[in-house]
Amino acid sequence: xxxxLQRYRSPVSMNYRRSCLVCGNSxxxxxxxxxxxxxxxxxxxxxxxxxDELKLEKEGNKKANILLTDAVNVLAFHGGACTIPxxxxxxxxxxEVAIDIASELVIKRKATSFKTKRGxxxxxxx
Length: 126
Ligand SMILES: [Zn+2]
Prior knowledge:
CATH architecture of the largest domain: Orthogonal Bundle
Helix content: 40-55%
CATH topology of the largest domain: Arc Repressor Mutant, subunit A
Number of strands: 3
Bound molecules: zinc ion
Radius of gyration: 29 Å
Largest sheet: 3 strands, antiparallel
Low-confidence stretches: none
Strand order of the largest sheet: 1-3-2
């Protein structure tokens, strides 16, 4: 005589699924999807989304690093220092992004910030 628990887990249990929710192919161990449609599972979907996020982050970091290198080159071109508006124009980026890049250089101790006599913010290589 089988116990209640065994009966619950047995393949004849009402919850036991035999076919994929997407294509109807047979599935293993009562899973809701076959191997071709495993990405339909919420957990797998979450993992896929996270991987996409990480890829985007990595790409963003790569672009930011290229921009930082370009900024250092612009500063070097201007004798080691220039104003934020100049940096923005030379790199063809917005003033906001130029400020971000300048801040990043300061945080990384590659540059220091200063103000011109006219009060315009600038950044200079260390
Ligand atoms: Zn399927």
